[in-house]
Amino acid sequence: MARMLVLLLVFSVGAFAAPDSQRPNIILMVADDHGREAFGAYGNEAIRTPHLDKLASEGLRFNHAYATTASCSASRSVLLTGLHNHANGQYGHEHSYHHFSTFESVRSLPVRLSEVGYVTAQVGKFHLGPREVYRFDQFLKVKPDPTLGREERNSVGMAKAAQALIESAGDQPFFLYLATNDPHRAHLTNSLGDNTFGNAADDEGQGLARLDYKAEDVIVPDYLPDIPEARRELAEYYQSVGRVDETMGELVRMLKAAGQYENTVIIYLSDNGTAMPGAKTTLYDPGVRLPLVIKPAGNYSQAGGATEAMVSWPDITPTILSLAGVQVPGDEFHGRDISPVLKAPNKTAGFDEVYGSHTFHELTMYYPMRSVRTRDFKLIWNIAAGLRYPFASDLYVSSTWQGTTERELVRFGKRTVDAYLHRQPFELYDMRGDGSEAINLAEHPDYQHIKQALIEKIRQFQQQTSDPWQYKWEYE
User: Fold this and answer.
1) Which neighbouring-strand residues pair with 66?
2) Which end of the chain is more exposed for a tag (fewer CB within 10 A), N or C?
3) Is the Cα dihedral 214, 219, 220, 221 positive or negative?
4) Is 72 a catalytic residue?
5) What is the DSSP string of 69-86?
6) Catalytic residue (one of 38, 55, 72, 458)
């Protein structure tokens, strides 16, 4: 009986792990606001992302990968806990007066990996709290680069900061969490008065450096208006994505030089979609349907393939633990291990729906939404319908939105401006013919049975994940 009790206690903290010699190094690289529409391997022929494309050719590209919330801190908390933000407590931004933080009882991915022998290291954007919950063995420092106007834009320097970690890897595996600040807007005002995407400053520290992209070169996605202001911002955005791509190139170069590339899992994804209205802070697909590329360790037989399996960010923590040889009870997470998809990408049965849960972005942006997306339909429940949809500060001052208002445009992409700002309690979209989510079918008589079925899925999801907002069904 005593021996059984010991075994149960060990299992309860997820301590079973494979020997170090059988465990790969793992890198989780998270970009900031990188939408899948700005990625060569996802079909954009105007942007240059050679290193990310190369990674996709040596790994598996997920065509249906979803964040659960299009907001930085909240999304990162999901990635590193396997729990929806409404359950882990990170309802919105961590920094400054926003002051949201994860519950101290939560056991995060880096803590779990450190406990089973991984050397864990973090570099770049953190934006989570408290630090003790997201404790890493090493917090790496980026060397100053005098050629950059803002040091946090030194994305390639973030990769270089991990060189000692990579070169010292031996029998003990490492987990590196590298989070770039690119291509997030830099909250700088350039000489044209725009809120930029953070291109490097010129020699005098003012304005923007030369852009490699011209406004006429970019592809304007259908959720944005095709106006000069949007095209100019997209050109800056492409430039910022280029720095992310260079960061991946530097990581791979160092891994190969150290003889660690083959034994390293590389996972690339973004926390949420592009910093544009209609994407970031919304549960529309441009905000939450994101790039995800996983290059497994060893000789990967499915290299260069793609999968239609529907996966989401709560799956990342249990998947990384599985790849690390750590056995943890599945009921500790809202996500699940998706590593079987790496072995059989065409077997997508059971990977057919994902859920979204957004409550805050900034403190002043209370607009809770819950969603379910199947292959055919998406239902969004706007819990605070009646309130005007709130703007993130960086989206409101963007020249794209300001250009829309100054031109008095009626439509913003395929939606009307009014529909974007004043949302109905339910939004139901037939994703088979309306991938732009422009035609709300929630009140259409022919779709009421589908609407009710999806409402029930959301209610069950809320119950299963201990969502405090489930009580809104009872008293509102």
Assistant:
1) 289, 312
2) N
3) negative
4) yes
5) -SSHHHHHHHHTTSS-HH
6) 72
